[in-house]
Amino acid sequence: MSNQDTEQKILNAATDVFQSKGMDGARMQEIADKANINKAMLHYYYRSKQKLFEAVFKTAISIMAPKLTEIIEKEEPLFDKIKHFTNSYINLISKHSYIPTFIIHELNRNPEILQDTFVKQFGNSFNKMKTQVNEMVENGEIRPIEPEHLIINVVAMSIFPFVAKPILKAVLQKDEADYQLLLEERKTHVADFVINSIKIN
Amino acid sequence: MSNQDTEQKILNAATDVFQSKGMDGARMQEIADKANINKAMLHYYYRSKQKLFEAVFKTAISIMAPKLTEIIEKEEPLFDKIKHFTNSYINLISKHSYIPTFIIHELNRNPEILQDTFVKQFGNSFNKMKTQVNEMVENGEIRPIEPEHLIINVVAMSIFPFVAKPILKAVLQKDEADYQLLLEERKTHVADFVINSIKIN
DNA sequence: ACTTTTGTCAACCAAACGGTTAAACAATAC
DNA sequence: GTATTGTTTAACCGTTTGGTTGACAAAAGT
User: Fold this and answer.
1) Tell me, what's the pLDDT at B1?
2) pTM of the full predicted structure?
3) Which chain A residues are Cβ-neighbours of B182 within 8 angstroms?
């Protein structure tokens, strides 16, 4: 067992525990148990619970953020952009289904942990899309809409079914398989729904 | 100071603390301090932290659920229903902005705490709306859409801006006042957006 | 009038928590 | 082969946590 192995095993176990239970609900002992190592090792590699949490949180952001900016920045027609986004973002979240709830909860607990880097990076990408949407509105290619509302709508409809999964599963009376099917449908449904709303007939 | 006063003061303080910090982050001492009473009183009126939490959680559900079923059950044209929903639901959440994140986090932590009562109640209301939407689709009054996706879309676009507020505020570079304005706009925007998407020109 | 019940508090308790220590162990260098 | 460095462990520590206790006062019941 090399040291890199151990450090990675800790981060993996910490990711599991922090993302499912949150910073406050997570226990250092549980992380150690899940990684099959002594609790002292957590402090040997990551000085404190806080530092370990920050490593997990930053990784979570770095999984979700780049794909968002990548798709938004790409030079392509708006409708294609929307289709690409819903498809590949829902796909991404499916592989990391705990992350959205985790980020949302921890950010509401302590809004300051967001480092500017990601925010400013996204701010620039978004400005490009803003002008793209505004120009299309001015040219009468799509119905009038504020770019901010448009992006909130797309992101909301893509992410919400994951964070509200327990309620929606219960309310719509679906088992796990049915719910996965519904999520799969949304990859195209959300894009179609949005495009139908803004396109001019 | 009567006993009813004390019990209510405890529940109010507990609501504050639990909703902003979650079950795991909440401290009984902090609740006692906020209620200006001795910590032993919490256990005198509510036997344990868990029981106190459940009282807060049930109240939170009872604030959010009835309005949802009420609007969905009401006999009125679909478009009016959508307009009423987005307007009055965004309005309701504005007054209890911590609740959605609170419910979502606690439900992901422990999906079993949802009692059937609310779920089954909603199941019936939703069936009515289901047939309403399906009939309109069959009659060619609206574009084809699965009622389940429609309701997820409406709810997602209404609630998401509240749970993702810290991220969206940072990303869209808005201060508190601007963000409140944006939320206000969504009361009509979401309904318009949805109706535009499903209506036939 | 006195007894019982209800409400309130300061002090206390055992358990769980994040974190530390000192020594054992393993790997590499000399 | 031995010194040096990095890795791992069991045992430990101080603090915080949810929860309890016993004393006491104010009502309520008789």
Assistant:
1) 40
2) 0.94
3) 148-149
